[in-house]
Write a structure and sequence with these properties.
The structure is a homodimer. Chain A is α/β, with parallel strands linked by helices. Helices cover 44% and strands 14% of the residues of chain A. Chain A has 7 helices and 5 strands, in the order E-H-E-H-H-E-H-E-H-H-E-H. The interface between A and B is medium-sized, with 21 and 21 residues.
Amino acid sequence: MSARGHTLWLTGLSGAGKTTTANALCDVLRRAGAAVVVIDGDALRAGLSSDLGFSAGDRDENVRRAGEIALLLNTQGVVTIVSLISPRTEARRAVRARHIENELSFAEIYLATPLSVCEARDPKALYKRARAGEQQHMTGVDDPYEAPEQAEITVSTELLAPEVLAEDISRRLGLL
Amino acid sequence: MSARGHTLWLTGLSGAGKTTTANALCDVLRRAGAAVVVIDGDALRAGLSSDLGFSAGDRDENVRRAGEIALLLNTQGVVTIVSLISPRTEARRAVRARHIENELSFAEIYLATPLSVCEARDPKALYKRARAGEQQHMTGVDDPYEAPEQAEITVSTELLAPEVLAEDISRRLGLL
C-alpha cells in the first residue's frame, strides 16, 4: 500500500470521459505501486446509492457518500479516484472541506469536455433520450451543471489519449 | 494489489474485540502483500452514516452501506475487513446475498465473546452508561443481538493474542 492516500475527484458532464480517465488513472497509478480504488457513479447508483433519486438533495447525498468513502480510504493510504458528475459546487466544496478538516489530500479534476462533444459521444444514449423527453434530470439538458472555478486541474479529453492524459494528470499532482 | 478481493465481516457485541481483531487482520494481510481496507463501525458512524440513528431500520441501513462499500472494494481486488456490531441476522444475510449474486468472496466471522466479558472490558464505558439508563439502544442490554448460526468462523477473543488470532483466521480462510 502507498503510505499516503489521495482523493482524485473527477467531475464533468455525462460523456465527458470521467470513467475512461478514471480507469486510465487507476492503471497508471497501480503500475506505479499505489493501492488504488475507483468509485464510479454508475456503480454507486447500482449499489450504495440505489435508494437515491436525482433531485438536487439526492444528488448532494450521493456526492456526500462518495466523499465519505473516499475519506475513509484516503485515511488508510488508498488513492481513491471518484468519477461522478457531481454537478453542484456546494456539494463538491463540502467534500473538499471534509478532506481539509481531516488533513487529507484532495484534488478536483474538471473534465471540461463541451456539452456538444459529450452529446455527440452519448455513450449511454442518455442525451438522445433526454432530448426526446424520455429522460428527466439530465445534467446539461434540464438539470444544471455548475463548472468548478478552482479545480486543481482542468482538462479536455478531446486532445489526448486516455493513458497520456492519465500520466499527465498524475505527474501534475506529484503522484508519479 | 491482490488479484482477488475478499470481504471479512466481523460481527459481535460492543467490546467483543472487533476493532482490535480487524486491525490485527489488516496488519497480517498487508504484510502478506494484500491491499487491505478496514471499514470500522465507529468511522462509519462519524462519516458516511452520520445521518443514521440506532433504530432497527437505521442499523440495517448502516449494515447495507458497509456491505455495499465492501462489495465495491472487493470487486476491485481489495480485502475489505468490516468491523460492525451488525446485530440482525437478516441484514447480514442480505449483505452475503449481494456478494453471492456478484460472485464475490464473503466470510462472516463471529466474535463470540460473552456479554459478561464485553461488559467487564467496556472500553468506551457504554455498558456502564446503558446500565445507568444514560444510553439507549445498547446492543446486549436493551437492544437484541442475533448471534450468527452459520458464520464461517466463530472465535473467542479471550484466549489468544490478537496477532495469533488474526493469523489463525487468515489461514483458515486460505488468505495466508
